[in-house]
Every structure is written in C-alpha cells, then in structure tokens.
Amino acid sequence: MEKLMIVGGNRLQGSLRASGSKNAALPILAACLLHAGTSVIREVPRLQDIATMCDVLVYLGARVEREGTVIRVDASSIQYTEVSEDLMRRMRASNLVLGALLGRFHRARISSPGGCNIGSRPMNLHLKGLRALGAVIEEKFGFISASAGRLQGVDIHLDMPSVGATENIMMAAVLADGTTVIRNAAKEPEVVDLQNFLNRMGARVKGAGTDVIRVEGVKKLYSVEHVVIPDRIEAGTYLVAAAVTGGDVTVTNIIPEHLEPLTAKLREAGVEVRANDDSLRVLARGRPRAVDIKTMPYPGFPTDMQPQMMALAAMAEGTSVITETVFENRYKHVSELRRMGADIRVEGQTAIVKGVARLSGAPVEATDLRAGAALVLAALAAENGTVLEGLEHIDRGYERFEQKLCGLGAKVMRVHS
User: How far apart, in whole angstroms, are the C-alpha atoms of residue 37 and residue 53?
Assistant: First the structure.
C-alpha cells in the first residue's frame, strides 16, 4: 500500500505544465472503435483510468501502443463486443464503449460500470438515447445488452445535460442513417473535443458547446491524429494549491476560458489571477476570503472542483456556503477535513464552512479522486505533517502529482508500507 507524507507550511512558487485532459481522452479513446483503422491520440496523460480504458480496447481486440503521451489505437481487428465485468468495475467511463460498439457493430454488452462512489450516476439517460436511435436494450443480472439493425437518426431530449449520455449518443449516431438531434446536451469542453475528433474522422457533428448537437450520419470514418485539450480540473487544482499556500504559481498549456468559473471564485476570495493566452498565474497574499459556491453543469462551477475549494474555504476568513447539486454523495471529504481541524457542518446538500486560522496535519484517507486532491491541498496549508492513504484514487486522475507539487516547493513524499 502506498501513502503520501506531506509537510505543510511551504509557499508554492514556480510554474508547471498542465497535462492533457483525462475526461477528454477517455471518450476519444472509446471513439477509436468506430473506425477499422489506426488513430493517433496525442497529449494523453499517464493515469490509471487511461490504462484501464486501454485495457478495455485491448480486451475487445484492438492493438494499442503507447509512447510517452502518444497512444496509437488500431481497431481494425476487433474480435469482441462484450467487456468483462472486471474491467467495467474498475472505471465508470468504460461505459463509453457502448455507443461506439453499437454504432459500428450494432451490438454491445457491458456490465454496470464502477468508478468513484460519489453518488448515483445511472445509465438511464444513455439507454434512453440509444433506444431512441433504434437499439433494443435488455438489462439483466447486472449486464446491459444492446443490439440493433441500422440505427436511425432521431430527435432526443435529455432530461438533464449528462456528459456521458451526450458522448455515448454522439458516438452511436455518427454512423446512423439520417440526422440525430441531441437537445439539452452537455456543454462541457470535453464534449467539444470529442466533436472535433469525430469530425476529423469524417463525421458531421456540430453544436457541441451549446445545448443542441446535430449529428448527420455518414457511411465511413477515417484514420486521424488528434491532440487532446488540456485538463482544466488538474490545472484548477494547482491554482487552488497556490491560493491555499499564499503562493505564486503559473500553470501553462491551458485554455483560460475553460477555467473561468473557478478563476471568478478565486478572485472573489481575494486572490489575484492573471490570464494570458495559454496560461494562468495565481498570486495569493495572506488569508483568502470566504466564498459561496454552487456546483452546476458547465459553464457553471464544476463539481470536480468543489472538494478543492472546500479545502480553501476551511481556512478562509469568514463563513462559506457550498451547495452540491450534481452528486448527492460528494461530501465524503468533510469528515477527513474535520480531522484536520476544519469547522464544517453539512445540511442535506449544503455545507456551511467556517474558516479557521490554521489547519493541523492528521492521518487522513482519500475516498475518491477529487476528495483526495482536496486533502492534499489542505495538508499543504496545514501545520505539521499529514499522512494520506487511498492514494490509488488520486492516481486515477493526476499525473505525477507529488512530483509536480515538489517542483513548486512542496514537501510531499510517496512511501510504501
């Protein structure tokens, strides 16, 4: 078992380069299944979730080669359209192969997906959209089986703007007959990046980034190269790390517009944020001010940055009110922050955070990916040392996390026990 040992109190300074987006790379890797050829994906981060998706592709019969941040996927010899239960349980995003397999092979079988236990994330919107395209879907014994003749373009209205459902429907629709219209679609930048990748392959998709996406079905797709967008959540985590330590940190290789919901809150907290074309610099002086946050689908404040901002609120001057509207079980980090001296009271989906002058190091455990990041940020600002367990969650979404932090002057060490 691996742990992080963190000694707080150091002011982070310097610059680092954001990795490619995990949440953009995963659906793009799944979309490689749509074409019987080789796709080259660049700027893919080295993460456990990416490794799991590659394992899924190999299990299905694809040939996957990795060199640095470049992954080549040859999907010309796919042998299976069923994903093993073990692979599906490792990561929820494995469900993204459903739309791609159904689009190309007109059949697919997956088990109910796993991933972080942060709340109910049912597949009902995915399945509703695929059924509307003409798929026959059976749910039995924990498995989802889908089959179809030719999928047929149709008008689909999502009950809520689900990112995964939007992406699965897009991938299934690119090879369907006719035009598919997805209304109340997710607007996240990662959905836009998937559209760009599909269009490079020869698909006809437009509207990503708005709430209406139109997919005109085509007969054939082609081999392409694609560069994944930067990871806005990873970049945001380092920006908050600078804020909680009173630091001066520049994050490069980013798209500042993708981080505007976060940078607006940092400025509200009294943190100076300077934006350039492809970088953001955070300069923090003294204790941050309390801020109120309500998570919403993009372009609202991202749920994936809520735990990190709660770490900031825990040491801010004043009382912050944080409301989580996306996942009902995303306050598991609260009890761990309390162990470090945070004053947090949860009432339903709202957390009232009274900032304290100083947090204290303590033994804590990451229960999910972003909760783990929040605990690391709290430890960087705390007195004395912190030992963090559950490191496997952090490794799912942060590439070389401790090395990047140490490069900014943090005292973080990975140890084996």
Answer: 18
Residue 114 pLDDT > 70 = no
Q: pLDDT exceeding 70 applies to what percent of the chain?
A: 97
pLDDT at 116 over 80: no
Q: Which listed residue (32, 54, 116, 406) is catalytic?
A: 116
Binding-site entries: 22-23, 92, 304, 326
Q: What is the pLDDT of residues 282-330, one digit of tens each?
A: 999 989 999 999 999 999 999 999 999 999 999 999 999 999 998 777 8
pLDDT band with cut points at 50, 70 and 90 for residue 393 = very high
**129/96 Cα distance (integer angstroms):** 13
406 is catalytic: no
DSSP state string for 353-406: EE--S--B--EEE--SHHHHHHHHHHHHHSBSEEEEE-HHHHHTT-TTHHHHHH
Domains contained in the chain, CATH given:
2-19+230-416 (3.65.10.10), 22-227 (3.65.10.10)
Cis before residue 122, ω within 30 degrees of 0? no
Strands (E), 59-218: 63-67, 70-74, 107-111, 136-140, 143-147, 155-157, 179-183, 204-206, 212-216
- pLDDT higher for 1 or 398? 398
Asked if 405 and 380 touch (Cβ cutoff 8 Å), the reply is yes
**Spatial distance between the Cα atoms of 395 and 89, rounded to a whole number of angstroms:** 17
Q: Which of 255, 243, 399 is nearest to 313 (CA)?
A: 243
Instruction: Provide the annotated binding site for UDP-N-acetyl-alpha-D-glucosamine.
Output: 92, 304, 326
